[in-house]
Amino acid sequence: VSRQERRARLKESIGVIAKRGMNLSAARSDRLWQVIACTRLLIDILGGKGPARASDAARRAHEFFETSLKHNPSDHKIECAKGCGFCCHLRVTAMAPEVFYLANHIRRAFKDSFETVLARIRAADADSRGLNGRERAKHHFPCGLLIDNACSVYAARPSSCRALTSISVETCKLGYDGEDVEVMTPAVWTEIRGAHNQAMWAALAHAELPSESYELNHAVLVALQTPEAESRWLAGEDVFAGVDREGAGDAADAAIKRRVCDRLIAGAMGRELPPWDPA
Ligand code: SF4
Questions:
Q1: Cα–Cα distance, 80 to 89 (Å, whole number)
Q2: Half-sphere exposure of residue 225, counting CA atoms within 13 Å on the CB side?
Q3: In the beta sheet, which residues pair with residue 245?
Q4: 154-171: per-residue pLDDT in tens?
Q5: For 193-207, what is each residue's pLDDT tens digit?
Q6: Is there a contact between 188 and 24 (Cβ–Cβ < 8 Å)?
Q7: Count of C-beta atoms within a 10 Å radius of residue 118
Q8: Alpha-carbon separation of residue 22 from 67, 161, 278 (angstroms)
Q9: CB under 6 Å to ligand 1: residues?
Q10: Interatomic CA distance for residues 61 and 69, integer angstroms
Q11: Do 232 and 96 meet the contact criterion of CB atoms below 8 Å apart?
């Protein structure tokens, strides 16, 4: 495929995702180009100069998530509803741009009650810091942003929360009660989350920024309490030092993540895609 053809494909795919997000019914190669297109949008945002370009990238990626959901309806009946917060008692992680976006949202949305919200997050962090997922679930410690069993930052919640959707509240309750169950999430949500995360990983890798995920209570607390946290992180400082983080997993997972990123970056920058070799 010539450079010109690759450019045309990228331009066309950017048009598709701007209008309707991912098209999960499209051919596999079209879906790949839609993720490449999202990667390019995020690369352009992160390549800017603004001090809020990380949170701007998260906002755009969340828009991509929501537009994609809207245009790829699922046949399943979703049982999630306001007032049901079983999953908000699990360990949640988010990438740094999502944490900064959420922190900025909290500053704006809770201008008049900022200290109260900060105290809630601090208390939640004190309860949950250092606990692994299993321990956290056993203690039923809620997310610091869960108020009256509803998410108080719904519009700015990270992709892990957006994607955790259930077709069986009964299963969620069993999990909350300590049974070893898997939340039944329709494929539409997991596929869109995969596209969202891959595009964000690749854009961060292109900008030479870390793409790990951080435990949410502690990371939001750090983002809210550290002066100029986003600018400093963009300048290379590890403002989340000491926060529990999840990388790519073991060496094999890390190698796959690198190959995924290499392909997305190559496509986004108009270069030939390296062959896919997950081995
Ligand atoms: S951010 Fe919102 S949706 Fe996510 S765990 Fe916290 S309260 Fe629940």
A1: 14
A2: 13
A3: 214
A4: 999 999 999 999 999 999
A5: 999 999 999 999 999
A6: yes
A7: 17
A8: 8, 19, 23
A9: 88, 92, 143, 145-146, 151, 153, 157, 161
A10: 12
A11: no
> What atom in ligand 1 is closest to the CA of residue 92?
5
- Indicate which residue's Cα is closest to atom 5 of ligand 1: 88
* Residues with Cβ within 8 Å of residue 6, at least 6 apart in sequence: 267, 270, 271, 272
With 0.85 as the threshold, say if the pTM is over it: yes
Residue with tokens 């352009």: 44
How far does residue 197's CA lie from ligand 1's centre (Å)? 18
Phi, psi for 149 (deg, rounded to 5): 60, 25
Among protein residues, the one with the nearest Cα to ligand 1's atom 8 is: 88
Ligand 1 atom 1 nearest Cα: 157
Nearest CA to ligand 1 atom 2: 151
pLDDT averaged over the chain? Answer: 94
The rounded Å distance from CA 234 to ligand 1 centre is 25
Give the pLDDT of residue 52.
97
